[in-house]
Amino acid sequence: MTTIRKLIIAAGMALGAMSTQAMAQGISHMKTGSVTSQPIGHAMFCQQHPRECRVRSRTKAAPKLTRKRWADLVKVNNHANFSVEPVTDQDAYGVEEHWTYPRSFGDCEDYVLLKRYMLLQRGWPASSLLITVVKQPNGDGHAVLTVRTSKADYVLDNLETKIKPWNKTRYRFLKRQSTRHTGKWTSISDTRSQVASY
What is the CATH number assigned to the segment(s) 3-188? Predict the structure, then answer.
């Protein structure tokens, strides 16, 4: 049995327990606020890829999380995390921010863009695949992919192999792409008294 297949089976077994625990806490889905500023890196990305930042959606409901969709998340997260070498924009391009699709290297936003693209190719709606800006425990900024599902909002992270509900991560959530418009961003009301320590 391949390593990825083992990971998918293990993740599938944990899915029910994680979802139940997240919902019991009443915060399985993020609460978003008003429209907020677009990260400069995303604004520059949109200039280079305007079509990707003009997608509008009227659908409010998140897609149902099936076993197949969970397998999609695990496969895509593992593929990106293991095939892309982490390199900062400063080291790769000599600039502070440069969001792009990675070839063999990239930083956190590049991992997110790749995972988002791969899930779009598998039929996931753009309204459920949201680039998200968070703050790490050490205060550094970071980007992850939030995947909205009927069960919970899950986080695909290049610093973490395990896919977790957003409220089970160690991050403070700041803002994410709008579910209605891929070129707009909304604030996140992260009112948890403390973030997860694991």
Answer: 3.10.620
The helix (run of H) or strand (run of E) holding residue 121 is helix 108-121
Q: Of the candidates 77, 75, 102, which has an alpha carbon nearest to the alpha carbon of residue 89?
A: 102
Cα separation of 110 and 107, whole Å?
Answer: 5
Tell me the C-alpha to C-alpha distance, in Å, between residue 161 and each of 40, 46, 80, 128, 157.
27, 28, 10, 20, 7
pLDDT in tens, the chain (198 residues): 555 555 555 555 545 444 444 333 448 999 999 999 999 999 999 999 999 999 999 877 899 999 999 999 999 999 999 999 999 999 999 999 999 999 899 999 999 999 999 999 999 999 999 999 999 999 999 999 999 999 999 999 999 999 999 999 999 999 999 999 999 999 999 988 666 654
The amino acid that residue 172 corresponds to is: R
Question: What residues does each domain of the chain span?
Answer: 3-188
